């Protein structure tokens, strides 16, 4: 008789697969270096010297070779010894972000995408109600209906009437088009605080969430500094802050253009920023003012917030700074749009965005 064969239990890091242990650290370093494999490996080597991450059986050279063999990094240019992440690594980075930020998804049912509107939808709930004219037959709960027929008519005179029928209560499913705006102005790395890396990580997790859980939804990603432009999901790990001001107007205008082309009735904008708008474009020139709330810039920004409200496009602002002066601006912006605002720490950013995305599933009236 065959039984279970148990391996020796080794507690702590020593019992982990050395490749997987180093890979988790390496992926974090890749985000901080905007996808620079060589710099990340250099940092990993320094960490190994300081914290003894490897041993004589498995070293950094073995780890690099495993990354190449598993197709996670490559070097297509033989003249240049610089490695680059592969598409497999990009997917791994998104999945890592999803696991870290949205761990509760593992406990949820795949495809859970409900609104608060009950009725003839397509997702069953635990609630039952009497049959009404027009209800689809596949929504009938046969077990409960049979039970009612036995109770109402008895076993000897079995028959089923309309008043015996029970149907499953359902929720409408919603499809949503989302534009995620990420601030890449210089303030995102000011004062020694790295705000762009958590923003990238959240964007990667959100993109993986939509790809795997809500394939009918759409997600477009915009970055904005002096100007705004659209990036692809695969570009997120390589996103860097530039010497830019904050042109929120350009970001909102581009977001509205994108959503205008989307056929989904439910549309929303999510904006991650750490400051007030300090730049707009007038013709071919930039008008900039980093001091205080410039009325010209503010009015253009609030005007677009109102326009989005009229188009039924709510804007959710995630402010990763708590300066009272900035909070005042966000309050004005949120009131103009009738949207929402979250004043989040860097650690809580992912949870806030996830919960807001889930709650924004709704059916347009």
Give a structural overview.
With 365 residues, the chain is α/β, with parallel strands linked by helices. The protein has three domains: 14-85; 114-173, no CATH class; 176-359, Rossmann fold (3-Layer(aba) Sandwich), CATH 3.40.50. Helix content is 38%, strand content 19%. It is built from ten helices and 13 strands. The protein has helices at residues 18-32, 37-51, 60-69, 87-101, 142-153, 196-213, 248-260, 295-310, 324-337, 349-359; strands at residues 73-74, 84-85, 114-119, 123-130, 166-173, 176-183, 218-224, 228-231, 266-273, 279-282, 285-288, 315-319, 340-343. It has a six-stranded mixed sheet with strand order 8-7-6-9-12-13, sandwiched between helices. Helix 9 (324-337) links the parallel strand 12 (315-319) and strand 13 (340-343). Helix 1 (18-32) crosses helix 2 (37-51), helix 6 packs parallel to helix 10 (349-359) and helix 7 packs parallel to helix 8. The radius of gyration is 26 Å and the shape is flat. The N and C termini lie far apart (65 Å). The model is unreliable at 104-123 (pLDDT under 50).
